[in-house]
Specification:
Layout lengths: L1 H39 L3 E8 L5 E8 L4 E9 L2 E6 L1 H13 L3 E8 L9 E7 L4 E7 L3 E4 L3 H17 L5 E8 L5 E8 L4 E9 L2 E6 L5
Antiparallel strand pairs: 1-2, 2-3, 3-4, 5-6, 6-7, 7-8, 9-10, 10-11, 11-12
Length: 216
């Protein structure tokens, strides 16, 4: 009889502990969702928490209701939850907003002997399949690498948004290297028949484009 009483007591204790553990997990999930929603500006639809080797540290991989992914490192200690969005996630959302096209992936890596401390280098992929090479910094933001395909994509995107907006779109776009390493020449034609010639100049921190004087 004593053994049965002890057994029932142990089962009751186990059930109570499991219940408390489950309640704690639900509360942690709720807090992480809330904090990520504030950062991303959208309700969190899906959330996956994966333990990291370091104690109390987790990797949060989430999908927002607006269709954008968001990732963060999460520190869970006792009943408190602190998190910080990863730089890959920050850059993905920032590039999506600036390029007016969903960025679906960002891959960054440290740079050996970098002149800018803590700057990372990598690649971003957009929904259209286009890729750009870039440098990223947690505080300084991002800048494009001196890569022809990157300059071609970014110039086209900027000119579409700045010159044409929603009234017209680019039908033909061509960018070619000039005799000067840092200067490119280009032509574009819109669906409404507008034609423009322009130049793109690269510098250490980025690039700028300019429509030929005769067409301004």
């Amino acid at each position: 009889m004593k053994n049965l009483i002890l057994l029932f007591s142990m089962l009751a204790l186990f059930q109570l502990t499991a219940c408390n553990s489950e309640d704690k997990q639900i509360e942690i999930d709720r807090q992480v969702r809330k904090k990520l929603s504030v950062i991303g500006g959208s309700i969190i639809k899906e959330l996956k928490l994966t333990p990291e080797p370091q104690e109390n540290l987790y990797f949060a991989d989430a999908m927002m209701e607006n269709g954008m992914p968001i990732q963060a490192m999460v520190l869970i200690k006792d009943d408190s939850v602190a998190l910080k969005e990863t730089i890959n996630s920050t850059m993905l959302r920032r590039l999506s907003k600036e390029m007016h096209e969903a960025c679906v992936g960002v891959s960054l890596r440290p740079i050996e002997n970098s002149r800018v401390p803590n700057e990372l280098q990598g690649e971003a992929v957009f929904k259209s399949g286009e890729k750009i090479q870039l440098f990223a910094h947690e505080e300084l933001g991002w800048r494009p690498a001196n890569d022809f395909n990157t300059l071609n994509f970014l110039t086209k995107k900027q000119m579409q948004h700045t010159l044409l907006g929603a009234n017209d779109s680019i039908k033909f776009f061509n960018l070619e290297k000039s005799a000067i390493d840092t200067v490119y020449n280009g032509k574009l034609e819109t669906y409404k028949g507008e034609k423009k010639e322009f130049s793109v100049t690269w510098s250490q921190t980025g690039f700028r484009w300019e429509i030929n004087q005769s067409q301004k």
